[in-house]
Amino acid sequence: MISKGFGMGGRKIIKAAALLIALGYSSLLVYQGGVNFNFQESRSVQVADLSIEPITKTTVLDSGLNKNITLDDIFISVKTTKHYQYTRLPIILKTWFQLAKDQTWFFTDTDNQQQQNQTNGHMVNTKCSASHQRKHLCCKMSVEYDHFLESGKKWFCHFDDDNYVNVPRLVSVLQTYNHQEDWYLGRTSVYEPVKIYKKPTNQLLFSFWFATGGAGFCVSRSLALKMLPVASGGRFISICEGIRLPDDVSMGFIIEHLMKKNLTLVPEFHSHLEQMKLLMSESFRDQISFSYSKTKNVWNVINVPGFDSRYDPTRFLSLHCFLFPHFKFCPR
């Protein structure tokens, strides 16, 4: 049924993509307003005593806006790497993962039997390199996308391993959109769209927006299926290499430029490119995702009461207890 749905239109999309890829190798110049992409992150996050406690009550309440969408309709993917398997991942496994254990999958580049057991087999070794280079990031995103297609879920939501996902809020926001329509939900981190120029004349060919992967984004199944001829089965990697842009930017290129579907801004997604301290605690329950970063011993984290910062430098443990105080590890 999928192949019939594309027909001549699908072949035209493939031809257009091939032309753009060929053009990308020889004549593309990229300008990104506001952000320089630097993928060298600190690996110094250390959190003590992150054993996982069994949770007997993890009810996720929906808003009642669209009863056709529940948590089980969402495929949540988390991109990670062996470099953070003992620092970032334990924080996620102890906190928000406990609210979406059956819906969350981790895409990594190594085998870790302990975490495979903790996630009930939800660790996917993509066989991609652990490098943070463009090609290898795109490799993981390609595997994420293909796994979503196979899942049959209604929404594909990608996050990074430095995100905290407010699961109930994610569900309630998606309940306001129709998965049978074309939706690309996320937040930008640049002040201007990405602009593609032709060398040597510097003629503007086209421009497009993209949702920052570090804040998280969601794609409806309807739109994901339309992307299938140009993105499935490893084709996503070819797109990345053709336009020479990272995975989240390439996703925006496919959706906004090739599919002609605009990004819908959802400000409740947040990345470490923002000043986390500007988020007020009274708004925490309304946010979908949070993040953190560390630069020259200075932490960019939310301001939330709770554990000592020496024990909880990312503030995710404290945030989780702020949102869900019934968890056993939370102070009484």
Strand order of the largest sheet: 4-3-2-5-10-7-11
Mean pLDDT: 84
The largest β sheet comes out as:
7 strands, mixed
Proportion of residues in helical segments:
25-40%
Q: Report the radius of gyration as a whole number of Å.
A: 20 Å
Q: What is the approximate shape?
A: globular
The termini sit apart by 54 Å
How much strand? 15-25%
Detail the poorly predicted runs.
1-64
Class from secondary-structure proportions? alpha/beta
Helix tally?
Answer: 10
Compressed to H and E, one letter per element, the order equals: HEEHEHEHEEHEEEEHHHHEEEEH
Count of DSSP strands: 14
What's the short version?
By secondary structure, this protein is an alpha/beta fold. It has ten helices and 14 strands.
Describe this structure in words.
- Helices cover 31% and strands 16% of the residues.
- The strands form 4 sheets. The chain has a 7-stranded mixed sheet.
- The radius of gyration is 20 Å and the shape is globular.
- It starts with a helix and ends in a 9-residue tail after the last helix.
- It comes from Danaus chrysippus.
- Its main location: membrane.
Q: Helices and strands in order, then pairings?
A:
Elements lengths: L1 H26 E4 L42 E6 L8 H7 L9 E5 L4 H6 L4 E3 L8 H18 L3 E6 L3 E2 L1 H8 L9 E3 L7 E5 L4 E6 L8 E4 H6 L1 H4 L3 H9 L3 H12 L5 E2 L23 E2 L2 E3 L2 E3 L15 H8 L9
Parallel strand pairs: 2-3, 2-5, 3-4, 7-11
Antiparallel strand pairs: 1-8, 5-10, 6-12, 7-10, 8-9, 13-14
GO molecular function: glycosyltransferase activity
Membrane topology: Single-pass membrane protein; Single-pass type II membrane protein
Subcellular location: Endomembrane system; Membrane
